[in-house]
Amino acid sequence: MATGAGTDPATRLREYLGPLEDLRGIASLLSFDQETVMPAAGHATRGRQEATLTRLMHEGMTAPVLTDLLDELDAAGADGDDAALAREVRREADKARRVPAELVEALTLAGSAGQEAWVKAREADDFAAFLPFLERNVALAREYAACFDVAEPYDALLDDYEPGMLTADVRDVFAQLRAEMPDLVGAAAERSAPALEGPFPIDAQRRAVDVLLARIGFDEESWLLGIAAHPFSSSPGRGDNRITTRYSEESLESLLSCLHEFGHGLYEAQIDPALDRTPLGHGASMALHESQSRLWEVFVGMSLPFWRGVWPELCECFGGLPGGVDLEPFVAGLNRVAPTLIRVDSDPVSYPLHIVLRFDLEQALVTGDLAVTDLPGAWRDGMRDLLGIEVPTDRLGVLQDVHWSFGAFGYFPTYALGTILAAQIWAVARDEIADVDGQMEAGNLAPLRAWLAEKVHRHGKRMEPGELIRDVTGRGLDAGPYLEFARGRAEGRLGG
Amino acid sequence: MATGAGTDPATRLREYLGPLEDLRGIASLLSFDQETVMPAAGHATRGRQEATLTRLMHEGMTAPVLTDLLDELDAAGADGDDAALAREVRREADKARRVPAELVEALTLAGSAGQEAWVKAREADDFAAFLPFLERNVALAREYAACFDVAEPYDALLDDYEPGMLTADVRDVFAQLRAEMPDLVGAAAERSAPALEGPFPIDAQRRAVDVLLARIGFDEESWLLGIAAHPFSSSPGRGDNRITTRYSEESLESLLSCLHEFGHGLYEAQIDPALDRTPLGHGASMALHESQSRLWEVFVGMSLPFWRGVWPELCECFGGLPGGVDLEPFVAGLNRVAPTLIRVDSDPVSYPLHIVLRFDLEQALVTGDLAVTDLPGAWRDGMRDLLGIEVPTDRLGVLQDVHWSFGAFGYFPTYALGTILAAQIWAVARDEIADVDGQMEAGNLAPLRAWLAEKVHRHGKRMEPGELIRDVTGRGLDAGPYLEFARGRAEGRLGG
Predict the structure, then answer these.
(1) Statement to judge: residues B82 and B110 lie in one domain
(2) Is B166 within 8 Å of chain A by CB?
């Protein structure tokens, strides 16, 4: 990547990083394409294309010229965004330099092969067919963790998704969940409203998704909605915000799913454009990202005021009462608590226990305390202990999630941390925004979007995640507001 | 791009080129995405991403290590595919090295800006708004041509799309068209059947496109059909073949358009996998590519036997006779000859004259004989002379095509050459494949696909375009079979 002479070091650093960010955006686009429209037979080709992008980005982040630029910038004395940029780039570059290029390539290729194998193994409910790929991924994850100087191997993996957070921090927070949540889930499930009953015509759901997205701020000029087997969001760059959802006649998950993914997309879309084409121009961490999606899904999207505001239009979409019920039982149905086998189908009260299980298991895999071959049994035991559920088949158990298939160990905790953070941030938002409920009911989500932009989004990675959390909430990670929310559900109360 | 030591030069050359081919495939995917689903506001971001890919590919092709590898391979004595690869890479590398990186980047950025300006200018029917962008593109094209040692500047531009062909060759062939075609177009139009009358319901067209594509060999495992304002095909790599079409209630162009794009896609899909991830793994030239699309569109897709074979299913799609007419008048309607203002709406008899006009104009722009500001007038004069049509507005005239907006001068001739080559190749196919008409009527296109694979597709760029044409047809480029086809239409005969 070229570096112009005669300009100041900060400018040259940005010029160097710009093309690397272009490649990052392209990689994001490739994923979107793969999950939404790519023909199945293109898998091997795509794997090679992704490996090449990954290698180029890794080469760019480990090149000596980058270290020189950072040193020059430090010597010149950087402040403001430049200082933040130098800090973040040095952090990423230091991490990248510790990992040999061959290992990076091996991780990418094993991830691609593992994902392909997982799709087939899950379909065939055949853990044994997936076993060698998972063993390979675990071995590579250990090799990766060994590149870093950390207190425990899992710290190295977690840090990729949640910079600066330690396994011990997660353990502390999750201990609170482990202690209190199983009883709360039981109580909430007992008091829960009945599920909404379908079938819900797909055409009506599509119309409803359009109505909801228009309401919350999705515009076709800069947003794209796709369909994917597993909904996700993708931000290839400024002006190009993408989310996906999926439709089933059996449930209305398309509605909450699109609110969730919108929350992710909005975070990236509202980052200060001054940070474009730099590593600062992204969400601060995976947990903070998930806090934004959960805020829109759970605290907006399961609230009575929001649905009251959109109810007449929603009924129009369905040509009558959706699911045949009125507003209040409809919202109560969306808020139903009932432990499930499948994480992504679970309600926000039982959800974190799915994560606690995965956190336990992946730590044990990485330390070697648990052999991969014993994983399905450990999964069953964990589901019984934490959620009181018997797992009938691996397809509905250990094979349900894609993450381990492509080697993403350390990612899962951020889901539960995101829900916890969402509760913290929502509590502050309710204090600071005038009449949030009234605004939602009036269909005006602009004040919430503006508040989130000001407090969270615009900063990108300017602050480290822990610092941003303290800046927004006035304290560190705190399970309190989330547990308060869960206790409310256990007592039969709705509301955030 | 890494080059492993200790392996033979041919292997190392392939290892070097593989990642560059990955980038080429990625660039192809980016275009597909941009033309099918990308949100409009993502344009600037995408332009930068494309510029970065272009620069990386250019750097890869101009790196001294590549020259060293080629020299090593020559010294070791390459034969077969290795020799062909060395020849093609040296050709591309020699061309790339002549163009400064800054000019490459300027061309990409000006192309992106020009395309955006063109979209708005065409919509507003405002050539003046487009003028500065087009002037910039013409200036850059001249600068580009000046990088090469050629008899006339246009040779350098043409060579990018039709390697080895000279402007003088095109001039000779087009002189034949200019001499004979205006009269043939007039005669054919006079004898032509009436146009098919819509409206043709979009849903019925979608079903019909599915039927046609399934019939000719499109399978969802490795092909993707998208919708685009201007249909095109895209081949990001092995197993990932993409085509687009568009639907309008007014016409059945969706049907012929998807046959056309399938022809392009099939060419790439049937290239020998041994050439994957090398510059040999692509169609030999734009004219040869266009010959494959035109063969499926015109010589299969406008033939009575083909439609006879698919007629019952087609009528099912439309819930009755499509356009309310029987098979014979339906096919006669598809074959209607009538000069049009718009190139892409034109029939295969008047089509080449649209190209002759563009060929004249872009040569004059590049030499400077024609000022860009005088282009609209020259366009009107040309349409009057060649096709007897008065151009009412620039939107329906000089602003209709995208090519010049992104700086693609020298591309247009390949369209007409493709039609000419399609007629040559089809004549040989009819000789060599047993009972082509009977096979088409029986819905069996496999023999044609296999013949094309064997004669044309599998070779990729192993042979130079001129050599491949001689290999397939037994002679060079020859307007004879095409003129024979056009004379048939002028005499009121259908059939290839």
Answers:
(1) yes
(2) no
Known catalytic membership, residue A221: no
From the list B261, B268, B297, B441, the catalytic residue is B261
What is the residue-level pLDDT of chain B in tens, covering all 496 positions? Answer: 444 556 899 999 999 999 999 999 999 999 999 999 999 999 889 989 998 999 999 999 999 999 999 999 999 998 999 999 999 999 999 999 999 989 988 998 899 899 889 999 999 999 999 999 999 999 999 999 999 999 999 999 999 999 999 999 999 999 999 999 999 999 999 999 999 999 999 999 999 999 999 999 999 999 999 999 889 999 999 999 999 999 999 999 999 999 999 999 999 999 999 999 999 999 999 999 999 999 999 999 999 999 999 999 999 999 999 999 999 999 999 999 999 999 999 999 999 999 999 999 999 999 999 999 999 999 999 999 999 999 999 999 999 999 999 999 999 999 999 999 999 999 999 999 999 999 999 999 999 999 999 999 999 999 999 999 999 999 999 999 999 999 999 998 886 5
Helices A9-36 and A43-62 sit at what angle, rounded to 10 degrees? 170
Q: What is the CATH number for B350? A: 1.10.1370.30
Are residues B374 and B283 part of one domain? Answer: yes
The answer to whether residue B271 is domain-embedded is: yes
Q: Is residue B58 part of a domain?
A: yes
Q: Which ranges of A217-282 does DSSP label H, i.e. alpha helix? A: 253-269
DSSP E strand boundaries for B306-371: none
Which among B151, B182, B215 is the end of a domain?
A: B151
Chain A touched by B53 (CB under 8 Å): yes
- Write the single-letter amino acid at B145: A
Residue B158 lies in a domain: yes
* Structural domain boundaries enclosing A55: 9-149
Both B54 and B168 in a single domain? no
Among chain A residues, the shortest Cα distance to B23 is held by A49
ipTM: 0.92
Q: What are the Cα distances from residue B82, in Å, to A116, A168, B89, B280?
A: 33, 57, 10, 10
Is B84 part of any domain? yes
Q: B14 and B97, same structural domain? A: yes
B22, B41, B239 member nearest A221 (Cβ)? B41
**Any A CB within 8 A of B488 CB:** no
Q: Which helix (H) or strand (E) holds B236?
A: strand B233-237
Q: Please tell me whether residues B106 and B178 are part of one structural domain.
A: no
pTM score, whole prediction: 0.93
Q: State CA B344 to chain mean position distance.
A: 12
Of A19, A30, A226, the CB nearest to B29: A30
Query: How many CA within 13 A on the CB side of residue B234?
Result: 28
Same domain, B440 and B491: yes
Same domain, B18 and B159: no
**Total of domains in chain B:** 2
**A window 17-46, beta carbon within 8 A of B:** 18-19, 22-23, 25-26, 29-30, 33, 37-46
Residue A496: closest CA among A485, A481, A487, A480: A485
**By the CB < 8 Å criterion, does A119 face chain B?**
no
Residues B372 and B429 in one domain: yes
- When scoring B22, B227, B282 by the number of chain A Cβ atoms within 10 A, the one with the most, hence best to mutate, is B22
- Reduced to 3 states, what is the DSSP secondary structure of residue A237? strand
β-sheet bridge partners, residue A225: A243
Q: Among all residues of chain A, which has the CA nearest to that of B19?
A: A52
Minimum-distance CB partner of A29 among B19, B33, B51: B33
